[in-house]
Specification:
Elements lengths: L38 E7 L5 E7 L19
Antiparallel strand pairs: 1-2
Bound molecules: copper (II) ion.
């Protein structure tokens, strides 16, 4: 079962990949309805207080399909 994490730790000289079925970001109750091709600005806060802002493109959904299996047992 997956569970929400407050933070992700990335060791020095290593990388952490966000991907379907693994660690990922979720927008819970976004302020406006999103549709494919929309671009959503997201800001991540680093451990030292720095911020990284980037845009994510919305893709057509697969909610409830096999591809989305990782979400059905999430506790968030
Ligand atoms: Cu999720």
């Amino acid at each position: 079962m997956m569970e929400a994490r407050e933070r992700l730790v990335i060791a020095p000289n290593s990388r952490l990949q966000l991907a379907p079925g693994g660690y990922h970001l979720m927008l819970v109750a976004p302020q406006k309805a999103l549709k494919a091709k929309d671009r959503v600005p997201l800001t991540m806060t680093l451990g030292d207080g720095g911020k990284v802002t980037f845009e994510a493109e919305v893709r057509s959904g697969t909610v409830g399909t096999k591809e989305d299996d990782g979400h059905k047992n999430m506790r968030h």
